[in-house]
Amino acid sequence: METFVRIMDTLWSTVLDVAPILLVLILFQVFVLRQTIPNLKRMVLGFVYVVIGLDLFLVGLDLALFPLGRLMAAQLTDPAFLGATPGPGGEPMVVWTDYLWVYVFAAAVGFATTVAEPALIAVAIKVEEVSGGAIRAWGLRAAVALGVSIGVALGTLRIVIGAPLPWFIVAGYVVVIGQTFFAPKAIIPLAYDSGGVTTSTVTVPLVTALGLGLASSIPGRSPLIDGFGLIALASLFPMITVMGYAQVGDYVRRRAARLRRAEEASVSEDGGKPPKE
Amino acid sequence: MPRALRSFLGLLLGAARDLAPIVGVILFFQLVVVQAPLPRPGPILAGLVLVVLGLALFIQGLEMGLFPLGESMARAFARRGSLVWLLLFSFALGFGTTIAEPALIAVADEAAKAAGEAQAIANTPEARETYALGLRYTVALSVGLAIVLGVFRILKGWPVQVFIIGGYLIVVCLTFFAPPEVVGVAYDSGGVTTSTITVPLVTALGVGLASSLGGRNPLIDGFGLIAFASLTPMIFVMVYGMMI
User: Fold this and answer.
1) A212, A227 in Cβ contact below 8 A?
2) Per-residue DSSP letters for B184-207?
3) Phi first, then psi: what are they for A119, rounded to 5°?
4) What global pTM score does this model have?
5) How many CB atoms lie within 10 A of CB A161?
6) Which residues of A217-247 are buried (b: 16+ CB within 10 A; e: fewer)?
């Protein structure tokens, strides 16, 4: 019963969230485009599915995963759990190696939440369709998830050692700009997009909880200043890994082609005969 | 009907597979690392069923509703050939989807708190509310303009990296001049603006436009709208922080 009430509450807020989009779509459809939509009934049903699906998804996450994830973030960042090195005055000192489990948890949660992110699934489906299967939905999602994983782990390390966020962001941008010149052209818009897509429904609440828990348990860190920035790093690194994914694929293909050519050449040198068909 | 049912069962299976890693991570850390028993297994199980069902429904609805809608509107605009209406639509879509975004509302409130404590604004509830609302309008405006610029780029077939690298250079320069308490918020606001419903719709719009114009590669020209929408808020929020 309680669950049902929550489903209805969340449904209402999801509908409110969708209302402006729907209004824009209907206004332009009715007053500007003035055309009949093919399969209107099916499309409306699809929209209803999207809203109800998102609603159930959010309520389920709130019931099953978020409380546990938040609790875990709090427990893992607790200096007592980590066995933090005591300083001269008995105060726990911040030694970055004590926080190993935090980095592991950050990387694992970053990867796992990204794989479950509905917006990324949507983009990956579209990409596989548009590229005619050349870019696999799973390959793209794994590359993005790896990027988020690195970004979040590095973000927690940054909070622990207290380095300024802009250093990391600027260094990341330099890598992105450098890769842009070398990566296959077709992947670039997609790689840039994947930065913004990754961080939504599933990733943001868990990652934010981790950042806030960490920033408030370490002396001298402010949750308001240091808690921010994990999301920024989580949207930066997927660009690097997606371009890297395409670069590695490209390299493997070229190498295979080069080996094949070399083999053909050596065969023709050996026998002086043309290579066998 | 049995075929539709079977395909939905396939979606359920796919959703369960998508969620397996996160369940595995949480179980591992709870049982092995923190070494605490699972609290309240009943609601957790019910919640997992809802999550799997919800994700499967969402993906089913995506293929039936959001993707075809975005693409059919893109084609209709391309047929009409009216640039003004297309750009107006792009702006309305970007602005409309962002202004009501719950994640943005949360970040704006946090940012107002940070600004109040840093004495950048008067630390009163009214001043904070004005600041947060101003921030939300700023971000929504920037996303609207981003979609307009991105759609214009698709029409012209300009390379996306010129804009994005240029934008990043502006972000890096602004970082030196913007007040420090707004920098983290600005970086994060880029990531939170693009919600789960906006992303499929905007992607379908871009791909639909690129494939209905002649001589465009949908992979190169159709993507990139989301990148624009996550870049411009960083610039606008830092400028907003400098002006206040």
Assistant:
1) yes
2) HHHHHHHHHSS-TTHHHHHHHHHH
3) -65, -35
4) 0.86
5) 12
6) bbeebebbbbbbbbbbbbbbbbbbbbbbbbe
Residues 6+ apart with CB under 8 A from A84: A92, A93, A94, A95, A98
3-state helix, strand, coil in chain A (%, to 5): 80, 0, 20
Cβ separation B22–A109 shorter than 8 A: yes
B241 token code pair: 């922080």
| pLDDT digit string, tens, across residues A109-134 | 999 999 988 989 999 999 998 888 88
Taking the C-alpha atoms of residue B55 and residue B186, their distance in angstroms, rounded to an integer, is 30
pLDDT at A277: 44
Directed axis angle between helix B2-28 and helix A66-76, to 10°?
20
CA distance B2 to chain A (A): 18
Share of chain B above pLDDT 70, in %: 99
* Strand (E) or helix (H) holding A261: helix A230-271
Dist. CA B99–CA B94, nearest whole Å: 9
Residues 6+ apart with CB under 8 A from A273: none
Of all residues in chain B, the one with the smallest CA distance to A145 is: B21
B223 vs B105, more confident: B223
Q: What is the tens place of the pLDDT at every residue in B29-50?
A: 888 887 878 777 888 888 899 9
- Region of residue B101 (phi > 0: left; psi between -120 and 50: alpha; otherwise: beta): beta
Reported as a single tens digit per residue, the pLDDT across A31-90 is 888 777 777 888 889 889 988 998 898 888 888 888 887 788 778 777 676 665 555 555
B74 close to B208: Cβ distance less than 8 angstroms: yes
Cβ(B118)–Cβ(B91) below 8 Å: no
Asked if the ipTM is above 0.95, the reply is no
Cα(A194)–Cα(B227) distance, integer angstroms: 8
* Option in B46, B188, B196 nearest A119 (CB): B196
Q: How confident is the model at residue B214 (pLDDT cuts 50, 70, 90)?
A: confident
Distance from CA of A51 to the nearest CA of B (A): 7
Q: Chain A: give the shortest CA distance to residue B25, in Å.
A: 6
Residue B149 in this model has a pLDDT that exceeds 80? yes
Instruction: Check: CB of residue B215 under 8 Å from CB of residue B151.
Output: no
Indicate whether A157 pLDDT > 50.
yes
HSE (CB half, 13 Å, CA atoms) of B55? 28
Give me the residue from B57, B190, B199 closest to A53, CB to CB.
B57
Classify burial at B63, counting beta carbons within 10 Å of its beta carbon; exposed 0-12, middle 13-18, buried 19 or more: middle
Q: What is the mean pLDDT of residues A80-106?
A: 70
Residues whose CB is less than 8 angstroms from the CB of residue B109 and which lie 6 or more positions away in sequence, other chains included:
B128, B132
Residue boundaries of the structural domains of chain A: 1-67, 77-269
Which chain B residue's Cα is nearest to A176?
B165
Spatial separation of the C-alpha atoms in residues A188 and A80, rounded to whole Å: 45
